[in-house]
């Protein structure tokens, strides 16, 4: 509290000296003018009270650059009230303030290159193939939120509280949603003083039920005055530049902490570049600041989604400077707004590391082709931009959502949280499908390069199995699918079934070893001649499925 009071006093003194004329001329009646000291004191008191109230309520950083607009207004008024040499001096101060203001207002034009450099990404072609034996974190947040609301009866004194913002993270090796219980209003905060805990729910199993964890929290986003978490952080770090909302993170013992990302402006109070986080114990208010390289291991979302969204915007828009982003738009890529948190979607890789996913599309209206996609490490802020196969045109996330709308137009179901994966070597959109009430109905997978190839099922893994079959039937090459072992075998064909799919033929056959196999004529053109009693030797992937995918087929007599 002492810092904000001292800052307000300094601001009040500056305002008083700028506004109150120091030199006076006598009035026509010959009476002396009021005391200069008295006027300065009165003006200063009013300015101190106003400044204190403003900075306390807004939680704005207490750097003197934050008052540049007020400085210009006060200098202009002071110059108008003053006379003689004092007017000249204050006019000069006003002109200096105008120059500073012009610099601040136009900084976004001149620092575009710096913004692009701060957000520059490593460029690669395609992400690694997803292991089909694992389950992606694919429970959509809207569905998770609905389930938590229905379980709100677990909270003591339920009428005092409401559900806070969801945050996905890894706890004890499992992917879960975390949502704090928040006060539902000022008077409920007065009566309750502290919140009782938070909810947790699996982010991979749609059948799981929410669990309420009892952990009392005093400093929260819904608390008031000095117990408000954002104000508490500001009081302890008055000059820090923060970006994004506070987020709840839970350690492996289940203890909650609030975190917030801080950094610095690119230039002139414009732009943002992340530097670290502030961590707060919501039970006792203890705070600690960490550089990104020192962030505790249990924290997944050190870089706020709002910060990543800014970085994506810098990278996509300012590749050739500011004016090109407005007029020519050469090489400009617009990040999509289909993400679940500040236009980005958090996902986890096979090593359990969290990344923010964003796809980029063309600035041209009516075009739904994707120009690439990015993955940003949520702990380090390091990002990689993936161009995708440049020989193919990939559909963006909006296009995937439109396909789902058309697919289930009669039921009025919609997709949420589309994420691009490399399934079996094919760039593919995985999207949970929800009904009008926000309940999960199925998981839809569609090829980004071949939208006619798609599949859906009740779980992500079931959808993956159907999608693999759809790819094989559609002539796709199924590789890089998982850690399944590649094997060879030989035998005599017992049964054959052929199905024409587009330009290719999907051939299913049963060998005398009792196993079923599936091969596309794109992989093995001679497969269209396969018939019963043929002797074959094959290379296949031992995935454990009913129909094992064939990578190579040799038919005796047709080699």
Please characterize this protein's 3D structure.
This protein is of the alpha+beta class. It is built from twelve helices and 27 strands. The chain has helices at residues 2-19, 36-58, 68-81, 84-110, 112-118, 141-150, 186-192, 229-236, 305-317, 322-326, 397-407, 460-473, and strands at 122-124, 161-163, 167-171, 174-183, 195-202, 211-217, 241-242, 247-250, 256-264, 273-280, 287-291, 334-335, 345-348, 354-361, 369-377, 383-386, 394-395, 414-415, 419-423, 426-434, 440-447, 454-457, 485-501, 504-511, 516-520, 535-542, 547-555. Strands 1, 12, 13, 14, 15, 16 and 17 form a seven-stranded mixed sheet that branches. Strands 2, 3, 4, 5 and 6 form a five-stranded antiparallel sheet that branches. β13 and β14 form a beta hairpin. α5 crosses α9. The radius of gyration is 31 Å and the shape is elongated. The model is unreliable at 25-30 (pLDDT under 50).
């Amino acid at each position: 509290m002492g810092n904000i009071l001292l800052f307000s006093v300094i601001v009040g003194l500056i305002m008083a000296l700028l506004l109150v004329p120091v030199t006076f001329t006598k009035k026509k009646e010959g009476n002396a003018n009021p005391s200069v000291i008295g006027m300065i004191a009165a003006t200063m008191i009013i300015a101190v009270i106003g400044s204190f109230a403003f900075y306390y309520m807004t939680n704005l950083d207490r750097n003197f650059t934050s008052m540049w607009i007020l400085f210009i207004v006060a200098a202009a008024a002071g110059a108008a009230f003053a006379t003689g040499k004092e007017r000249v001096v204050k006019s000069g101060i006003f002109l200096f303030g105008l120059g500073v203001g012009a610099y601040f207002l136009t900084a976004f034009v001149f620092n575009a290159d710096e913004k692009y450099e701060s957000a520059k990404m490593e460029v690669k072609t395609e992400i690694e193939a997803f292991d089909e034996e694992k389950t992606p974190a694919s429970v959509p947040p809207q569905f998770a939120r609905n389930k938590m609301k229905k379980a709100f009866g677990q909270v003591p004194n339920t009428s005092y509280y409401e559900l806070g913002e969801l945050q996905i993270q890894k706890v004890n090796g499992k992917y879960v949603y975390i949502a704090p219980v928040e006060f539902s209003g000022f008077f409920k905060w007065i009566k309750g003083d502290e919140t009782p805990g938070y909810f947790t729910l699996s982010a991979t199993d749609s059948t799981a039920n929410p669990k309420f964890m009892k952990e009392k929290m005093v400093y929260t986003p819904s608390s008031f005055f000095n117990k408000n978490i954002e104000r508490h952080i500001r009081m302890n770090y008055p000059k820090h530049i923060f970006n994004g909302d506070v987020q709840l993170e839970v350690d492996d013992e289940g203890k909650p902490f609030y975190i917030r990302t801080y950094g610095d402006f690119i230039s002139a109070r414009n732009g943002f570049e992340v530097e670290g986080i502030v961590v707060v114990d919501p039970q006792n208010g203890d705070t600690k600041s960490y550089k990104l390289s020192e962030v505790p291991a249990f924290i997944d979302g050190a870089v706020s989604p709002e910060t990543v969204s800014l970085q994506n915007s810098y990278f996509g828009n300012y590749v050739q400077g500011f004016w090109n982003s407005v007029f020519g738009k050469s090489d400009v890529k617009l990040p999509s707004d289909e993400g679940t948190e500040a236009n980005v979607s958090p996902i986890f890789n096979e090593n359990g590391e969290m990344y923010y996913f964003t796809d980029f599309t063309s600035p041209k209206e009516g075009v739904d082709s994707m120009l690439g996609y990015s993955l940003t490490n949520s702990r380090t802020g390091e990002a990689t931009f993936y161009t995708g196969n440049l020989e193919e045109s990939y559909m963006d996330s909006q296009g995937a959502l439109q396909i789902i709308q058309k697919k289930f137009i009669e039921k009025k179901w919609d997709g949420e949280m589309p994420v691009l994966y490399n399934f079996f070597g094919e760039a593919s959109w995985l999207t949970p499908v929800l009904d009008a009430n926000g309940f999960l109905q199925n998981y839809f997978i569609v090829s980004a390069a071949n939208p006619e190839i798609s599949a859906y099922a009740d779980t992500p893994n079931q959808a993956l199995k159907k999608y693999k079959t759809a790819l094989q039937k559609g002539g796709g090459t199924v590789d890089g699918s998982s850690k399944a072992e590649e094997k060879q075998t030989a035998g005599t064909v017992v049964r054959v079934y052929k199905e024409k799919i587009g330009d290719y033929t999907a051939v299913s056959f049963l060998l005398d070893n009792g196993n079923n196999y599936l091969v596309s004529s794109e992989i093995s053109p001679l497969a269209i001649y396969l018939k019963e009693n043929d002797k074959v030797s094959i290379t296949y992937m031992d995935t454990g499925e009913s129909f094992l995918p064939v990578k190579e087929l040799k038919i005796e007599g047709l080699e």
